Structure formats: structure tokens, C-alpha cells
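Chain A, query sequence.
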Amino acid sequence: MKVIVYCRNDDPYSQMLKNLLSMNEILFENKEVARDQAAFNEMHELSGQNKTPVLVINGHAYSGFDREMIKDILQKEKELEERSSNDT
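Chain A, predicted structure.
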């Protein structure tokens, strides 16, 4: 599973998202958009959002921090990966 978090270090929701992923042992790439204009542009192109956090999982962008929604998405992605690895 490829996971990218577009965040701002001063945004508490970005921090909560990163903590949630870490607690669930999800490896992710962190992109700090306040310091990196290219990362900000990427985030905006993927999500249409100017606000953080934006979570991208396997190319699908999700905006904001909704703990239950994120847990559901992660569970579904894990299940898809397991099915794919069992099919091979």
C-alpha cells in the first residue's frame, strides 16, 4: 500500500493523522506543504484542496481528518492487498 500524507507541521489534524497511521503501523511518505511548493501543488492537483491534511492511498485522495473513515479505508485497502497477494 502506497500512502502519502500532505500536511502542515502546525496543523493539529495533520499530526493526528500521522499519529493514527503510525499507531496502526502504516508506513507513509510525509510531504510538508508549507515548506515545499511542489508538494503543495501536487496535493492541490490530487485533491483540489488547499487545506491539510490530505491522505493519498494508492492514488486515491481523501481530505481532512475523520478517524473512523480513515480506519475503514485502511481496512479495505489491506483486504484488497491480501486478496491480490492470494490470487498470485
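The mean pLDDT is 93. The longest strand covers residues 3-7.
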